[in-house]
Amino acid sequence: MRFGVLGTGTVGDAIASKLVALGHEVKMGARDAKNEKAAAWVARSGARASQGSFADAAAFGELLWNCTSGAGSLDALKAAGEANLAGKVLIDIANPLDFSKGMPPTLFVSNTDSLGEQLQRAFPKTHVVKTLNTLNAQLMVAPGSLAGGDHDLFMSGNDAGAKGKVKELLQSFGWKTIHDLGDITTARGTESILPLWIRLWGALGNASFNFKIVR
């Protein structure tokens, strides 16, 4: 399968590398088609890896990943182009974190809205699925590295078919327990976990942790 990964940071690198390792073709997109981080990733990732602009990656991918910073996600997707996004599933990993006043960051949208909803409203012909935003990049692609993979993931989105495709893909990453929270408005809940996540990171001294629902 062909994937477009928007974003060249730690998360984009981890997701793109996992997809290539699973045998998929991946184009990493950035504002600059010659982005140095993307070029370095391509150089070490082999023949199934390529790079380009946001628009190039969005046009290439049958399924797309938003791995950009939350503050820049809308602009990145606008640069990707509505026509390149239309009819496709977009897995949104970004969080609405505002670092303008330093650490810890605040949320620039919360309670009555979410970044996931903003993206869905901006691109109504795209099937936005919010997931993987409540843990660090290492665990996103290797859940088995923590407690045998026996921990939980959450998913939000309006389209049942899109969520089904994303669930299958996440299972190929090694995820066992994926909670479908409902439509995209439920992304308000998972994005609101981030202030707690950041404080746990500080208290624990590392980011190798996740949540598990016990009933």
Briefly characterize the structure.
Helices cover 39% and strands 21% of the residues. With 215 residues, the chain is of the alpha/beta class. The relative contact order is 0.13.
Question: What share of residues are in beta strands?
Answer: 15-25%
Gross morphology: globular
Order of helices and strands, N to C? Answer: EHEHEHEHHEEEHEHEHEHH
Number of domains: 1
Number of helices: 10
Task: Please summarize the sheet with the most strands.
Answer: 8 strands, mixed
Q: Please identify the structural class as seen in this structure.
A: alpha/beta
In total, the number of strands is 10
CATH superfamily: NAD(P)-binding Rossmann-like Domain
User: Which runs of at least 5 residues are low in confidence (pLDDT < 50)?
Assistant: none
Characterization of this structure:
- By secondary structure, the protein is of the alpha/beta class.
- It has a single domain, classed as 3-Layer(aba) Sandwich (Rossmann fold), CATH 3.40.50.
- The protein is built from ten helices and ten strands.
- The strands form two sheets. The protein has an eight-stranded mixed sheet with strand order 3-2-1-4-5-8-9-10, with helices on both faces.
- Strand 2, helix 2 and strand 3 form a beta-alpha-beta unit.
- Helix 3 crosses helix 4.
- It is globular, with a radius of gyration of 16 Å.
- The N and C termini lie far apart (37 Å).
- The model has no long low-confidence stretch (mean pLDDT 97).
